[in-house]
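Example for tutorial group B:
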């Protein structure tokens, strides 16, 4: 987006905001889906992301590109949702009588809509292994290996050094190999 368009967003221009949502909603959904593996939660993250973008665009400093800033918000929202669900799953295990009607598993088996039918079984095994990674490994691995981003792009999105991203991806690959055996 150009400076003028950012100024329009800051001024609250509804048309500019709709154009921004239209331009980025696919990428935001894709990243949320890669992390959460649940369509409804990914859609929630999309909504939450654009609400935060709308509310905080005035604080956008331009230190990164607008797309990086938006995707970083989406990834943070997805990780937040993932951590919250993990805590709820731990509570369900510890106190099943307290949350008896909640049967949702932390480990989701819903796949990204782009995965072909014949590859679903392999993809399910891989995604189960990815789901067991710690959040930073999961995001780094997803960005590099599934989204085919460069280490520099992932570094900027995750606000970590390239060396840290390389380390996270390496550990993620080791952990995935262990899970798949």
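The residue assignment follows.
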């Amino acid at each position: 987006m150009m400076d003028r368009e950012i100024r329009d967003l800051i001024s609250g221009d509804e048309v500019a905001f709709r154009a921004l949502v239209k331009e980025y909603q696919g990428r935001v959904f894709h990243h949320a889906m890669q992390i959460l593996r649940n369509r409804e939660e990914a859609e929630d993250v999309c909504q939450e992301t654009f609400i935060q973008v709308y509310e905080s665009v005035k604080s956008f400093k331009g230190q990164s590109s607008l797309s990086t800033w938006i995707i970083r918000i989406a990834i943070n929202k997805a990780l937040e949702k993932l951590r919250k669900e993990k805590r709820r799953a731990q509570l369900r295990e510890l106190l099943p009588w307290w949350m008896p009607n909640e049967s949702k598993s932390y480990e989701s088996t819903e796949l990204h809509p782009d995965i072909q039918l014949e590859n679903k079984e392999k993809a399910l095994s891989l995604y189960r292994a990815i789901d067991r990674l710690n959040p930073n490994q999961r995001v780094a691995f997803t960005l590099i290996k599934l989204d085919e981003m460069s280490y520099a792009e992932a570094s900027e999105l995750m606000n970590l050094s390239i060396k840290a991203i390389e380390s996270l991806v390496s550990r993620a690959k080791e952990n995935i190999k262990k899970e798949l055996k």
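Residues 66-94 form the longest helix (29 residues). Compare this with the pattern of hydrophobic and polar residues in the output above.
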